[in-house]
Amino acid sequence: MKLLVAEDQSMLRDAMCQLLTFQPDVDSVLQAKDGQEAIQLLEKESVDIAILDVEMPVKTGLEVLEWIRAEKAE
């Protein structure tokens, strides 16, 4: 399983990613520091699960979710 973690607080993001990599079903974990970086990664990579912080600079997690829904609707 491929995951994306988008979180603007680097210590929290790093800790979450570290814990997720220890899970047996997790193959890789992508990291984004804000919503815009998350969208840029999602334009290039397909993920099974995206864990999005609601409040981030540039674009919020909700804006990323709207982008995902719009892209998947096409």
Automatic annotation (TrEMBL):
GO biological process: any one?
Answer: phosphorelay signal transduction system
Q: Where is the signal peptide?
A: none
> Known SUPFAM superfamilies for this protein?
CheY-like (SSF52172)
Record's keyword terms, sorted: Phosphoprotein
Q: Which Pfam families does the entry mention?
A: Response_reg
Q: Which positions bear 4-aspartylphosphate?
A: D53
> Which InterPro entries does its entry note?
CheY-like_superfamily, Sig_transdc_resp-reg_receiver, ST_Response_Regulator
Response regulatory domain location:
2-74
Name of protein = Response regulator
